């Protein structure tokens, strides 16, 4: 075998099932935004000069970084743009963690972190979340003495649980290694939930963001992060030469600029999330965190999560089932349009009637 020995037993990251697109498909399994990206993107490209694609893209995405800086009131020197957040995650492990060092990761969370750690021969210390999936910061810190880093996805995926700014500050005041705070879903949480401004106080903090969720731009693969100038300079040193193509840079900038459209879509997703949460409770589901563009839920009586997943897949309604510890009796449902959620609920009601179940919620 030609590969490095530690990769021989590696299990790669497994993304959610991606069904073949058709007009009847209701896709609620990948936390994609149910609404299209800003129409200003399409307008911009009506007059786009495609001749410029003969040239290499701007190596550091300078214009895009300036756009992000203006929106978030952060210096350009504190911003890095990557080919999706996934590239930034890989760069962080490449640049900041030695082989055989250790990183603390709560369980459950975004599984790519553990996969990337294994790729770079970094050990993971998985700390179980509480019964309600909340993160116990004391548990995290008590295991951190020999750790080089702590990873926290906030709000967490797939639970939707949010850790408060005060608790993040508590960790930062106690731990001097690298703290990776992934805020992919933060726009769907309450105002002032973000820890972004803390990078101005804590030089060991890095905050990740993405255009995939709240900006409806999964397809262009654009992530960005905020950190001290020292951390950003390392990321610039070790990134690929032209890591973000010209089209992605331009699309991202146009999408970011349209604040009115962005805010309007956010409110629609939040409103539908509230409605879906109430309906699921009435159907006998327990609901966990409501801070992202999805809901993790558990059928409280009778029906099994996998059976519900299979039943909904028949009429082309796809939600997420996790066959792993603590999640196998639960389902994650991405927030869709009002019409998509109507169809989902009609089918859930139909299933309940067919099985003759009587649900009582404990929420």
TrEMBL record:
Gene3D superfamilies: Aspartate Aminotransferase, domain 1, Type I PLP-dependent aspartate aminotransferase-like (Major domain). The keyword Transferase applies. Residues 24-345 form the Aminotransferase class I/classII large domain. Its EC number is 2.6.1.9. It catalyses: L-histidinol phosphate + 2-oxoglutarate = 3-(imidazol-4-yl)-2-oxopropyl phosphate + L-glutamate. Pathway: Amino-acid biosynthesis; L-histidine biosynthesis; L-histidine from 5-phospho-alpha-D-ribose 1-diphosphate: step 7/9. Its cofactor is pyridoxal 5'-phosphate. The modification N6-(pyridoxal phosphate)lysine is found at residue 213. It is an enzyme of class 2 (transferase). Keywords: Amino-acid biosynthesis, Aminotransferase, Histidine biosynthesis, Pyridoxal phosphate, Transferase. It comes from the Bacteria. Homodimer. This is Histidinol-phosphate aminotransferase. It comes from Lysinibacillus macroides. The gene is hisC.
């Amino acid at each position: 075998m030609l590969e490095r020995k530690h990769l021989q037993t590696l299990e790669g990251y497994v993304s959610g099932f991606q069904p073949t697109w058709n007009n009847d498909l209701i896709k609620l399994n990948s936390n994609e935004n149910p609404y299209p990206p800003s129409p200003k993107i399409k307008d911009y490209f009506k007059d786009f000069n495609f001749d410029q694609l003969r040239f290499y893209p701007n190596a550091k995405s300078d214009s895009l970084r300036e756009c992000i800086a203006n929106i978030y009131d952060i210096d350009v020197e504190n911003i890095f743009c990557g080919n999706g957040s996934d590239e930034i995650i890989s760069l962080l492990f490449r640049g900041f963690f030695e082989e055989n060092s250790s990183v603390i990761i709560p369980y459950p969370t975004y599984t790519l972190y553990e996969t990337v750690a294994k790729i770079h021969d970094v050990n993971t210390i998985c700390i179980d979340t509480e019964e309600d999936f909340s993160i116990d910061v004391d548990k995290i810190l008590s295991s951190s003495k020999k750790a080089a880093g702590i990873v926290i996805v906030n709000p967490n995926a797939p639970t939707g649980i949010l850790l408060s700014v005060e608790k993040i500050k508590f960790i930062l005041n106690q731990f001097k290694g690298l703290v990776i705070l992934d805020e992919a879903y933060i726009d769907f949480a309450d105002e002032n939930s973000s820890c972004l401004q803390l990078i101005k106080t804590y030089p060991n903090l890095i905050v990740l963001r993405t255009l995939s969720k709240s900006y409806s731009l999964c397809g262009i693969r654009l992530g960005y992060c905020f950190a001290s100038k020292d951390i950003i300079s390392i990321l610039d040193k070790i990134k690929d030469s032209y890591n973000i193509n010209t089209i992605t840079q331009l699309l991202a900038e146009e999408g970011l600029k349209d604040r009115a459209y962005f805010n309007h879509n956010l409110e629609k997703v939040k409103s539908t999330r509230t409605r879906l949460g109430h309906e699921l409770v009435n159907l006998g589901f327990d609901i966990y965190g409501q801070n992202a563009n999805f809901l993790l839920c558990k059928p409280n009586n009778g029906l099994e999560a996998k059976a519900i997943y299979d039943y909904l897949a028949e009429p082309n309604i796809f939600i997420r089932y996790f066959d792993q510890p603590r999640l196998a009796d639960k389902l994650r449902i991405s927030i869709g349009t009002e019409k998509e959620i109507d169809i989902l609920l009609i089918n859930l009601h139909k299933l309940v009637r067919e099985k003759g179940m009587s649900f009582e919620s404990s929420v």
